[in-house]
């Protein structure tokens, strides 16, 4: 299987990155193919509701930016790990840009029956993540994507998750359990 990890934090080697990477390492231990993308390395323009993906372009987004590289990777993946820290009780701006650009899949249904794993580090912990997790869960449901796991990590300082053996183990095991 192919597992694609999306890191929606601007901080490389920090909490989101570490948790997503552990999931990918676990997946590799179960012989799955993995790839990781740092969203902050990509140019992702906002969806402008042109509706071309609905009507004029065979369900393709017509905005020419790095999402054109991401779309085939999403379509080839069996499991997508969506990792974003909690920013003001929602995802980071970059992750939101990516989510908005999933609009073509409402029509094409190309993400249907794929699996998603959600990773949300936050300073306040799980209770503060209910709005963001809920928004992702509803969006996955709308796209026909099955939520296969949810990791809500309490962490604030850079790379704090590296000092949480339980989180490292749980995320590795989550990846290893992918089937
Ligand atoms: C702009 C901004 C907004 C944030 N908003 C929240 C928040 O609403 N609730 C919370 O618990 N933590 C919030 N945080 C803290 C981050 O979620 C936390 O530091 C997280 O571990 C960062 O993950 P990273 O190390 O992968 O970047 C915020 C951080 C920033 C920079």
Report on this model:
The chain has 179 residues and is an alpha/beta fold. The protein has one domain: Flavodoxin domain (Rossmann fold). The protein is 38% helix and 19% strand. Helix 1 (15-29) packs across helix 7 (165-176). The model has no long low-confidence stretch (mean pLDDT 97). Flavin mononucleotide is lined by residues 9, 11, 14-16, 85-89, 121-124, 128, 155-156, 158. Flavin mononucleotide binds at residues 9, 11, 14-16, 85-89, 121-124, 128, 155-156, 158.
**Could you give the order of the helices and strands?**
EHEHHEHHEHEH
Number of helical elements = 7
**Straight-line distance between termini:** 8 Å
Spatial order of the strands forming the largest sheet: 2-1-3-4-5
Low-confidence stretches at least 5 residues in length (pLDDT < 50)? Answer: none
Sheet having the most strands: 5 strands, parallel
Please write the CATH class name.
Answer: Alpha Beta
The helical percent reads 25-40%
Bound molecules: flavin mononucleotide
Strand content: 15-25%
Coarse structural class: alpha/beta
The radius of gyration over CA amounts to 16 Å
